[in-house]
Amino acid sequence: MSTQTILEQDKARRVRADKRTSLSTFLLNSLLAVWAAIVIFPMLWLLYTSFKTDKEIFFSPWSLPAALQWDNYQRAWVDAHIGEYFANSFIVVLPSLALILILSTMTAYILARFPFPGNRAIFYLFLAGMLFPVFLALIPLFFLVKDLGMLSSYHGLILVYTAYSLPFSVFFMTGFFRTLPSELHESAIIDGANQYQVFFRIMLPLAQAGLISIGIFNFLGMWNQYLLPLVLMTNAKQYLLTQGLAYMLVQQYYQNDWSALFAAVGMIMVPTLVVYIIFQNQIQKGITVGALKG
Amino acid sequence: MYRNKYRIIIPFLAPSLLLYITFVLYPYASAMYISLTRWKGLTKAPEFIGLENFARMLGDDNFWNALGNNGVYIVVLPVITLGIALFFAFVLTQGVKYAKFHRVTYFFPQVMSVVAIGVLWSFVFHPTIGFLSSLLRLLGVAEPPVWLGNPDTVIGSLSLVTIWQAVGFYMVLFIASMESVPDTYYEAAKLDGASKWHIFWNITMPLIWDTFQTAVIFIMIGSTNMFAITQTMTGGGPSRSSEVLSTYLYGEAFLGSKFGYGTAMAVTLFFITLIISTVLTRILRRDSLEY
To answer: Which residue segment(s) compose the domain that B112 sits in?
Structure first.
C-alpha cells in the first residue's frame, strides 16, 4: 500500500466520522428545538388567543385573532377583579418579604457569631421546621389564626408567611454569616462601635448577595403560594392572585367568558416573563438555592 | 468583643422565635394530638378517640385510591423528569449552539405559579377550545381523548403538566453541578477515545451524584403533594380518579368538617415523606468523590 492510498483512506474515514457527528449534532439540535417549542408554544397560543372573541376561541382554536380584543383585558382586570387580586398579593407579599429579610438576618447573625448556651439548640429548632410538610400544620394553623381573630386579614397572612419562611432563610443566612471574617467585627468594636452599629453598618452590607438570593426565593415562593391563602383568606374581596385566578376558572363553568380568563392568565404571565428575562441569572440561582438545603 | 452581648442577643432572637414557635411549631405539635381526636371544629372541643382515625383510614377506599395516585406520581415523575433533565443538562454543557437560549427557555415555567400553569393547561387540554384536540383531529385521530375528563387519561395529563414545569428546574440544578466538574477530566477521557455515553456514566454521573441524590428526594417529596395542580385542573375528578392525599384531606377537613380525620391523614402524609427521605438517603448513599 502506498502512502498515497493510506492518506486517502484516512481522509475518507474522517469525512465519514464528520458526517456522523454532524448528523448527531443535527438530531440533538432538533431535539432541543422541539422541547423549546413544547415550552413556548402553549404560552404563545394563550397570548394570541387572549385577544380573540369567544366565538373565535370556540370555532377556530388555532387561528390568529381577526382583530385585537383589548376589551378582554379590560374585563379581566375590572369585572373579574384581577386588578384587585394583584394589589392584594402585593399588600401581603411585600411586607412579608421585608419582615423575613430583617428577622432572618438578625436571627442568623446571632446564631452564627455569638456563642451562648442554647445557641445550637435554637439553630436546630429552626432547622426542624424544614422537615415538616405544611399540610401537617394546616388544620391547627387554621384554628389558631381563627382564634387570634386574624382569619381573612392581611396581617394574619403576613405573619404566617413570615413564620413559615424563617427556617430556610435562617439556615441559609447563618451559613452566610459564618463565612464572614471575624476580624471586621473585632476591629469595629475596638474602634468604639456598638453591636448594633456593627450589624447594620458592617455585616448587613456584606450579606447583600445572600439577601438577594433568599429575597428572590421567598418572593416567588409567596407570590405563587396557593394553599395558605386558600385556607386563611376566606373573603372573596381579599383573595390573592393565585386564589383569584383559580376562582375565576371555576366561575367560567357558569359564565362562559373564556376570553377574559385567557386575558387574566396573559396579564399574569407577561410581567413574570419580563422580570424573568431581565433577572434570569439571579432568579435561576435564587430558586435553585432552595433545593440545596438537603 | 462580646461585652454586654445579651443586649443584642435577646432583642435579635425574640421576635423570630416568638413567631416561629406560635405559627409553626405549635401547629405541628398540636397536629399530632388532633389526629387522635374526633373533631367537627367550630364549637365542640376535640374528643380523644386514640388511633381510631388511623384504623378508619385502613378501611377507607377513597384514602387508598388517593394514596395509589400519589404512588403513581412518586414513580413516574422522578424517572421521566430527571431523565429528561439530565439529558438536556449534559447536552447543554457540551458546547451546543444556543445553549443559553434553551436554558433560559426551559426554566421559565418554574417561575410561573402552579395555578396559572394549571389554568393554561386546562385550556390546552379542553376538548373544544384546546389546540391539542384539534391538532390530533388534523392528524387524523377521529376521537381525541377527553384528557382531563377521562379516568384513564387524567393522571397522565397531570403528570405531563408537572413534567413540563419541572424539567427546567432540575436541568439548571444539574447544569450548575456539571459546570463545577473540572474540564481536565473530560479532556483526558476524550484523549482516551471515550464515547459521550461513557463520559456521561463514568465521569459526569459519579461527580454530580450528591446533586442527583438531592434532586431525587426533592422531586419524590413533591410528588406526595401535587395539591395546587390537582385542585386547579381537576379538583380530584372525574369521580375521584385524580384525587391525591393532599386534596382528599383538604376536602375532608375544610369541606366535610372532619378535622380529626383530615389531620390524621396529614400525619400519615408526613410519615410517608419522612420514610421516603430516610430510605432514599440510605439507598443512594455513595462515597462522594472529591475533586
So the answer is: 34-284
Q: What is the reported pLDDT for A144?
A: 94
**Would the pTM count as exceeding 0.80?**
yes
Q: Any idea what the CATH number is for the domain that residue B274 is in? A: 1.10.3720.10
Average pLDDT across chain B, whole number: 90
Distance CA A160, CA B157 (A): 33
Residue percentage of chain B with pLDDT more than 70:
97
> Which residue in B12, B115, B120 is closest to A246 by CB distance?
B115
The ipTM estimated for the assembled molecules is 0.89
Check: CB of residue A110 under 8 Å from CB of residue A169. Answer: no
Nearest neighbour of B116 by CB, restricted to A29, A170, A268: A268
CA of B17: how far to CAs of A172, A214, A271, B269, in Å? 16, 19, 36, 26
Q: What is the DSSP string of B58-92?
A: HT-HHHHHHHHHHHHHHHHHHHHHHHHHHHHHHHH
Specify the 3-state DSSP secondary structure of B47. Answer: strand
d(CA B257, CA B41): 7
User: What cell does A14 get?
Assistant: 474522517
Contacting residues for A191 by C-beta, under 8 A, at least 6 apart: none
Rounded distance between C-alpha atoms, residue B106 and residue B109, angstroms: 7
- B67 vs B59: CA distance, rounded Å: 13
Please state, as a whole number, how many other Cβ atoms lie within 10 Å of the Cβ of residue A40. 13
Task: For residue B134, give every residue at least 6 positions away whose Cβ sits within 8 Å of its Cβ, in sequence order, or none.
Answer: A61, A62
Q: Is residue A10 part of a domain?
A: yes
How far is Cα B111 from Cα B231, in angstroms, rounded to an integer? 19
Chain B CB contacts of A294 under 8 Å are: 213-214, 217-218
Size of interface A-B (CB pairs under 8 A): 245
- The answer on A153 and A92 residing in a single domain is yes
- Phi, psi torsion values for B153, nearest 5 degrees: -110, -10
Asked if the C-beta of B26 comes within 8 angstroms of chain A's C-beta atoms, the answer is: yes
Reading the block at residue B89, the C-alpha cell is 443538562
pLDDT tens track for B254-263: 998 899 999 9
- The one-digit pLDDT tens for each residue of chain A (294 residues) are 556 666 676 666 666 666 667 778 888 899 999 999 999 999 999 999 999 888 888 888 888 888 888 888 988 898 888 999 999 999 999 999 999 999 999 999 999 988 899 999 999 999 998 888 899 999 999 999 999 999 999 999 999 999 999 999 999 999 888 888 878 888 888 888 888 888 888 888 888 888 998 999 999 999 999 999 999 999 989 999 999 999 988 887 677 788 889 999 999 999 899 889 888 888 888 887 766 543
Domain count, chain B: 1
69-108 of B, contacting A, C-beta below 8 A: 84, 88, 91-92, 96-98, 101-102, 104-108
Say if A228 falls within a structural domain.
Answer: yes
Gap between the Cα atoms of B246 and B244, Å rounded: 6
* Residue A275 maps to a domain: yes
Smallest Cβ–Cβ distance between A140 and the set B31, B106, B225 belongs to B31
